[in-house]
Amino acid sequence: MSHAAPVQMVNKPLAQERHAVRTQRTRDLLLDSMYSLALEKDYADITVQEILNRTGVSRSTFYAHFRTKEDLIIAGYQAIGVPSTKVTEVSGDRRVVLDVSAWLFSATERHAALTTSFFSGPGQSVILAHLENILIIQVREHYRKHGLYQVAEMRGEVAVRCFVGALIGLWLWWVRHDYPATAKQMTESFDALMNNGTWPPENTAAH
């Protein structure tokens, strides 16, 4: 009497984990290639084929992860992670504030040359739109979590858009003027105005 060969059980969680590791490794490889090319030439002149030639990744694999080279850049911002929160005193009350300005300015300062390259060509509008969307989602979710956003009213969304608009406006000025102040100085100045409602910061006010 013959016996059927035992069926090998597939460890699905382990297989999924390995797939996730391979996927992340490919994304990191493509992103690193984009960064190195952006330091050598204008971002607008970089082609997807150049990225593929440098990495050895196939075109089909690239498009399985990203639609365009702009999507690749957005993945770089997302890889930074999410902003942390901090407790601060606002008008005498202790509040939990999303430290999104420090998140953006510090990450930009670490990659200043890359940011300058990305925002010096025609592709900047696409990248900026994606970055704005990332910030809006983060700020909106923070407001909702802490009861500062009412879906049925417009005031919550107005607050989100005003905050993000002010942050991006200041950030763009900083980038386009070749970083005239440190990330720490930019963060402190922005937070003093937007979170505390005071300007200039008290410790720098003229006496």
TrEMBL record:
Keywords: DNA-binding
UniProt cross-references to Gene3D superfamilies, sorted A to Z: Tetracycline Repressor, domain 2
InterPro entries: Homeodomain-like_sf (IPR009057), HTH-type_Tx_Regulator (IPR050624), HTH_TetR (IPR001647)
Top-rank taxon, per record: Bacteria
GO molecular function: DNA binding
Domain spans labelled HTH tetR-type: 24-84
Keyword DNA-binding belongs to the record: yes
Pfam families assigned to the protein according to its UniProt record, in alphabetical order: TetR_N
UniProt-recorded name of the protein: TetR family transcriptional regulator
DNA-binding region coordinates: 47-66
